[in-house]
Specification:
The protein has about 325 residues and is of the alpha/beta class. It has nine helices and eleven strands. It has a four-stranded parallel sheet.
Amino acid sequence: MTINIITYKGVEYTHASLRDSLKKHAVKLRVIDYESLFKLKRFPTGAYIFTDRERLDVWQQQAVSIIYNNLNQYPEYYKVYNDPAKILSKMGSLRLLYKKKINSFNCYSVIENTQPKQFPVFLKTEYEHKSPLSKLLKNQQELDQAISSFQQSHIPLDGMIITEYCSAPYRGEVFRRLSSYIIGDHISFAGTVHEKSWCVKYGAPALVGDAEYLEEQDMIRQNYYREKIQKIAHLLNIEYGRVDFNVVDGNIAVYEINTNPSIVPFVANHANPIRNQNNRDIFEQYINNLIKIDHNCKKIFTPKIKTKLKILQRS
């Protein structure tokens, strides 16, 4: 029983620490980078999760899609997740969510030279999951100045997107981000993060207490917004990843979907015991759902997969 998680080279750490947790369930985890994947002549049976679509160039995306579809032809040997040919870019995903009226905010490529319909906005790169490149920009003049500043600093504008701001404080000066895991057909709530900033990324300690963590506990038990997240996963062809979202004025606002989220095994290191229990429940649900997608192949022989990657070589 083996789960193979394929990542971009250098970011294998996101899942590497799960090996011991899965071993307890008689599941072997292999984390492989794409460079090593392309060199394989045979693919051992099991589940294959393809991540980091946004970090791959078009040639690599096409190569991975060929591998995905070849493995998918042998369901008795393989289960495969996240076809990069069907997953949209970050901007493409946000635009589709806006078009389908799931999100109330839109985004634009900087090189489109399109004026946003609503302000404030912020700038962010399409290829990473790091913090925004800019502060909140209140009007077109501030936006133009920020873009000009990047140009003068020799930072490429291609791949830079303008996103309309859509958030609101949770309580007082504290903002909150919500998350859910997508693992095959399974959705589980992935917890809350709090910061004194509109851009909630890593969280800050001691901002909230028992009341907020009891609310989080209810969200975990109710699998908060499960049906909406499932609908979004199907719309965007996401079969594995973490959805980061919020609820603003009663409506969901999806900020991004990370197909290679960093998963850390549970450790009871929080000062609040309710939060510790919540983190334990979140991790156990994640592991239980991950185990469900494992492929217990009883076949003895492994088919030889012909990926024909030579057609993708650059001229």
